[in-house]
Amino acid sequence: MTGAGAMIDEWYPVGLFSQLTEAGSKTALMGEPIEVTRTPDGAAQVRSSSGRALPVRVRYGHVWSSLGNPAKELFAIPEADQPGRRFVDVGVVRVRCSPLRAVENFLDIAHFPFVHTDILGAEPHTEVESYKVEIREAEDEVWATQVKFYQPQAAKSATGGITTEYMYRVPAPTCSVLYKTCPPRPTEWDVITLFVQPLAEDLCDVWPWMALFDDVTPMTDLIHFQQMIFLQDRSILENQIPALLPLDPGMEIPTRADMTSIAYRRWLKRHNYLYGAQLVAQ
């Protein structure tokens, strides 16, 4: 596929397993129409427009597939098997932006006070403190750690403003896993993920998923809270210029707060993950 690069052989979310039917649902993956169905024996099945059976995995409440031949298994999230957590299928939000832009926005800390005002951030608490970013060679993942930010309402379960600690992890080109302070259990991490389905280079479906320690908040409230956060991001994402994610370091001027983005872009370029990217200025 032209422009797909190595991303053709990666796993992507294509639907919620709980919503599968034998009638199936039509969607797309990297410009190709696909159909996702439940077989009579209850398994997930994905086929291309030509009828070709595509690889399938069911994990984290979602069906995953690929147009290519993934050389490695879907990345692990150990917290998905941890007893006592509530697993929240947030649903889907369609965004007219590059799938890579959607992930990069999720990694951005500096926008909290301005886009998620009085929830994930507030003035005058706008400074991004120094944090650590690395590409972990053994896992081949981008990690940002020691990220701290004051938040008026860090989670639906929060009862007041706290300084929240974050860790960001990028295990796949269109997926990110966020570990953040868990208000009810300060010794644990809440897990919030962003699984992005690339429909086209400038269009994607975003499937957030959460693994939380929260036995009090109604499930509907947890879903609505996370959807509200992402819908606040959507208007920003859909107005970014250029529409595709620039990988040429000279095309944008980064700041100290953008260290995670810089590492992510470097990692994408290293692996030829180019679907949704722009290599040179136009």
UniProtKB/TrEMBL annotation:
EC numbers: 1.14.13.-
Keyword check for Oxidoreductase: yes
Keyword Oxidoreductase part of the UniProt annotation: yes
Primary enzyme class: oxidoreductase
Alphabetical UniProt keywords: Dioxygenase, Oxidoreductase
Descriptive protein name: Aromatic ring-hydroxylating dioxygenase subunit alpha
